Amino acid sequence: MHAMQYEITMPADYDMGIIRRRVANRGHLLDDWQGLGFKAYLMRERGVHGSPVNQYAPFYLWNTVAGMNAFLWGGPFQGIVDDFGRPSVRQWSGLAYAEGSDAHSPARVAVRRRQQVPDDGLLAEAMAEAARETERLADEDGAVLAAAAVDTSRWELIHFSLWGNDTPKADGDVYEVLHMSAPGRDRLPG
Q: Is the pLDDT reported for residue 74 higher than 90?
C-alpha cells in the first residue's frame, strides 16, 4: 500500500467553486482506475474548519505502484499539470489501514495529521504505535476509515482519516471531501 498527496494552494480570493465544479465534472475519471484503493478529492477553504488557505489537496491510497505510475505518467494527473503547473507529489509507505465504525457512510470531511517519528526508541515500536492509532481512529463514532503511512526520507508519519460527519474525532488539518473514487478500497491491506 502506498499513500500519495499533492497540495495546490490558491490565492486567498480564489473562487473555490472552480475546484468544486472541476471535481464534479472530472471526479468520476478514477472511479474504476486499476490499482487505486481510493482517492479522496479534498479541499480546504480559507476560514472554514480553521483553514488559513484555499487549497486543493487530494489524498490517495494505492494498491499497486503500477496503478500509481500509470496515473502520474500520462493519466489524469496531466490535467492538473496543464491547469496548475506540476505540484510536488508526496509519497509515503503504507503502515496500516482500517475500515471505520461508519464505513458505509459517505465521507464528508478528512483529517490529516503529520508528526515526526521520534528519534529515540525502536522504529518497530513507533510503527506499531501508528498502527494502534489507526485502529483507535477507525473505532471512533463517525469514522469511515483510517490509515497511517511513513516517509522514511523525512521520518515523518501521517495519520489520515475520513469522517461521515462534520465533527471529526481527530486532530490535524481538516478538509472537505468533494468526491471519493474507491475502486480497490475493499482490497487495501488491513
A: no
Contacts of 125 (CB under 8 A, 6+ apart): none
Do 47 and 100 contact (CB within 8 A), yes or no? no
**Eight-class DSSP state of 49:** T
| pLDDT at residue 75, as a whole number | 82
Question: 163 is in which domain, residue-wise?
Answer: 2-187
Give the model confidence (pLDDT) of 84-141 as tens digits: 999 999 999 999 999 999 999 999 999 999 999 999 989 999 999 999 999 999 999 9
Q: What whole-number distance in Å separates Cα of residue 170 and Cα of residue 160?
A: 9
Retrieve residue 107's grid coordinates: 465521507
| Distance, CA of 60 to CA of 145 (rounded, Å) | 13
Give 139-151 pLDDT, tens digit per residue.
Answer: 999 999 999 999 9
The answer to whether the beta carbons of residues 44 and 57 sit under 8 Å apart is yes
CATH value at residue 149: 3.30.70.100
The count of domains in the chain is: 1
Three-point CA angle 157, 159, 165, nearest 5°: 165
Query: pTM here?
Result: 0.96
- The rounded distance, in Å, linking the Cα atoms of 60 and 117 is 21
Cell numbers 511513513 correspond to 150
